[in-house]
Amino acid sequence: MLFRPLLYLILIAAIAGAAIYAYRRFAEPSKSKHELSVEQIQRMGRLMLVRFSIKDVVTQTKQRPLFLPDATALLIVVGEVYAGIDLAKIKNEDITQGPEQVIVKLPRCQILTHKVNLKKTQIYDVQWGGFKPWVLVAGALKAAEDKIREAAIDLGFAEPCKQQAHALLEPMFTQIANKKVVIKF
Question: Does an H or E element contain 185, and which?
């Protein structure tokens, strides 16, 4: 008596399992259709010389009114800051030729771009208390992106950038000019 319902249950489970397997095996994957167009082509003369990789532990809090619990998120954000020089800003008067050497005055080093590396960023905890969690996380990522840029400035990004410019450009320019090339900022 107990055997018959158990047999039906096993049979139904087997049929359901086979149906799920067949659906997953033979279902069509989603397809995307793309129609791309170039919106803008911009000439660039930027030379990226250094990359800073900076970690930021962020606790983002959204205070809730009355007696509702606060929304909080804990993230470890990895950001990257790229610094270099804009070679397009060099003018003819920035290059001085002497009999034995050439002096090239480069524009000052600057932060060319900074971003959060989403692949390396980790979200550890989100306690949202009725608040939209993606808004909280997006706010934390934006705050971290700004702090990562500030950290690169505080760390003195310009000095390693200048050192790399000397190491990279002086030998190359010396080879091209067949004279000693001195780089100044």
Answer: none
**Residue for token pair 């800073």:** 52
Return the SS3 of 68: coil
pTM (two decimals): 0.69
Domain-by-domain residue ranges, the chain? 43-184
Among 103, 107, 106, which residue's Cα sits nearest to residue 174? 103
Q: How far apart are CA 8 and CA 144, in angstroms?
A: 57
Q: Which of 11, 133, 141 has the alpha carbon at shortest distance from 78?
A: 141
CA distance 133 to 71: 8
Q: Dihedrals φ, ψ of 41, to 5°? A: -120, 125
Q: How far apart are CA 23 and CA 14, in angstroms?
A: 14
Distance CA 99, CA 95 (A): 13
Contact in structure between 128 and 71 (CB atoms under 8 Å) = yes
Measured CA to CA, the distance from residue 152 to residue 110 in angstroms comes to 11
- Give the amino acid at 1: M
Taking 70 as the threshold, does the pLDDT of residue 2 lie above it?
Answer: no
How far is 108 from 111, CA to CA, in rounded Å? 10
Q: Measured between alpha carbons, how far is 97 from 103 in angstroms, rounded to an integer?
A: 6
Query: What is the average per-residue pLDDT within 40-52?
Result: 85
